[in-house]
Amino acid sequence: MPYPKQTNQLYFAYGSNLSLEQMAHRCPDSRYIGRAILPDHAWQINERGYANVVPRSGSSVHGLVYAISAADEARLDRCEGVQTRLYSKTYHDAIFHPARSKFQLFTRDVVHRGGVVRAMGRKFKRSRHFEQSARLQRDMLVYISREYVRQSEPRSEYVDRINKGIKDATSLGVPMDYYEEHVRHIVPGRRSHRVRTPSPFAQQYANAYCPNNHDVLEDRGYGNTHRVRRMESRDAQGHAQQMRYPWWNPTRWAYPVRVFYERPSNFREW
User: Fold this and answer.
1) pLDDT per residue over 37-61, tens digit each?
2) Selected catalytic residue, list 73, 80, 218, 269
3) Is 267 inside a domain boundary?
4) Which of 1-5, 237-241, 266-270 shows the highest mean pLDDT?
5) Of 54, 17, 74, 59, which Cα lies nearest the Cα of 147?
6) Which residues are annotated as a binding site?
7) How far apart are CA 39 and CA 170, in angstroms?
8) Does the pLDDT of residue 114 top 80, yes or no?
């Protein structure tokens, strides 16, 4: 696919479009060119369960900036629901921190090369000066919902998408402190509220080797990713104890006995 001619239309992303992978899918011609700060606005999740910004004096919203073509802008209009008034196209002045020219890449190239750090190269990872001097940028495109401005909770499918965007944004210079202060109390780092149903095989294993505790797999809401704890399987046979060790051990190295009473951070799923 040929690369489009450069355009002067700058788009400010603050929600799930922070993800370069999503932008590459929605807007194939889009190009990452830096980050920006939108003054006198506050970040929120509205009653539809999606990100939005609302006017608020003294507050600011951080995000990434993309250069988009006319075709990309038309695609964004459809994705954001401009015709149905879910979001409105607005133009605002923002404090723009442009990336240096060698770090301004097409989003599809970033995805093709395996992510932000790999696409930017080792110099980007070690460089503290990958941005140019900040300046005031006029008429930056921002999609804002004017019909839905009530604070609410995010949709479960939206949590993963916006977390991917936060990961890309912080890799590209957006301060993590901003998300910790303004976003994390609304959007968790992972979908901790998700409840998983134990698989039949996992439940059969628990019933066979844990006759005194049939609810071990429902502990903390995890289904087929729980191991059987030693303290709850004292009545199991010797061969069951020998089978249990290689089942949950994620590596070929032996672990101390104390880890039997803990949940390993990198245990293997079934």
Assistant:
1) 999 999 999 999 999 999 999 999 9
2) 80
3) no
4) 1-5
5) 54
6) 11-16
7) 19
8) yes
Collapsed DSSP state (helix, strand, coil) of residue 19: coil
Active site residue 153: no
Among the candidates 120, 149, 182, a domain finishes at 182
- Mean predicted confidence (pLDDT) in 133-138: 94
The whole-angstrom separation of Cα 210 and Cα 236 is 7
**pLDDT for residue 194 is more than 70:** no
Whether 154 and 212 share a structural domain:
no
pLDDT (0 to 100) of residue 115: 83
CB atoms within 10 A of CB 260: 17
Please give the pLDDT value at position 146. 96
End-to-end distance of the chain based on CA atoms, in angstroms? Answer: 41
DSSP 200-259: HHHHHHHHHH-TT-TTGGGGGG--TTPPPPGGG-TTS-HHHHHHHHHHH--SSS---GGG
Does residue 190 belong to any structural domain of this protein? no
Q: Which domain covers residue 56, as residue numbers?
A: 10-182
Q: Are both 45 and 177 inside the same structural domain?
A: yes
- Exposure letters 198-219 (e unless 16+ CB within 10 A, then b): beeebbebbeebbeebeebbbe
Annotated binding site for substrate: 11-16
Q: 63 and 158: one domain?
A: yes
**Same domain flag for 68 and 102:** yes
Q: How many domains does the chain have?
A: 2
CATH value at residue 155:
3.10.490.10
Helix (H) or strand (E) holding 65: strand 51-67
CA-closest candidate to residue 9, choices 104, 142, 131: 142
On whether residue 114 sits in a domain, the answer given is yes
